[in-house]
Specification:
With 224 residues, the protein is an alpha/beta fold. Helix content is 36%, strand content 24%. It starts with a strand and ends with a strand.
């Protein structure tokens, strides 16, 4: 499903935060990427989500070598991946209601007719009431906003879901609820998962296998 080989990436070519890293996620597999804050795992996740072009290395997604990132990525590639970030307030347009936030990817890809049914389906799945859907980000809690961001990530039915510290800012009950939503979606769709975080217990309970960030590569950590 996802193959990252020899990836070097960062925001300064003279001092990349990711150096020669390789990682794979199979079809339908859930992989946890474990590492401390600041190690570069979020940058690698952004590469995998087609949001950051690497300086070196290759990425294969669903059997095809990726040639473009961000706006240069083909639409069918971008819609293959859904991503949820750690801080929902930095990834949500404050001008949009939660309903509009969830619907945004459908409108952007010309699928407006699907909006009412898909938003209703996903808002129920993530636990957002009709009243909450009409609110803007400033009028809801972090947990409620992250529920909407997860729904947005799922709205185009991605084959790969990337959760980059998705639950780091949430309480235990909301964390459990969102993990359950992800697993329900994966059971129904067969989607793969890359879950990035620093909570080893959570990742090992959630994922089929966990890999640990190394100095120059990602090393496997046996689960159990």
């Amino acid at each position: 499903m996802l193959e990252l080989t020899g990836i070097t990436a960062g925001y300064d070519r003279r001092d990349p935060v990711v150096r020669d890293v390789s990682l794979s996620v199979g079809h339908g597999e859930a992989v946890g990427l474990l590492g401390p804050s600041g190690c570069g795992k979020s940058t690698l996740a952004r590469v995998a989500a087609l949001l950051h072009r690497p300086d070196a290395g290759t990425m294969t997604l669903d059997g095809t070598v990726v040639r473009g990132w961000r706006h240069r990525a083909r639409q069918e590639r971008r819609t293959t991946v859904g991503v949820v970030f750690q801080q929902p307030r930095l990834s949500a347009d404050p001008r949009l209601s939660l309903r509009e936030l969830i619907a945004q990817p459908l409108r952007a890809t010309g699928r407006r007719r699907e909006v009412p049914e898909r938003v209703a389906e996903l808002s129920s799945l993530v636990g957002l009431s009709a009243e909450l859907l009409e609110r803007r980000p400033h009028a809801v809690s972090d947990g409620q906003l992250q529920r909407a961001c997860l729904a947005r990530a799922l709205v185009l039915r991605p084959k790969l879901l990337i959760c980059d510290e998705m639950t780091a800012m949430l309480d235990a009950s909301t964390t459990a609820a969102l993990v359950a939503v992800v697993e329900a979606y994966r059971t129904e769709s067969g989607a793969a998962l890359l879950a990035v975080g620093h909570d080893r217990v959570l990742l090992e309970r959630w994922c089929d296998r966990t890999v640990r960030w190394g100095e120059r590569s990602v090393e496997r950590v046996p689960v159990g």
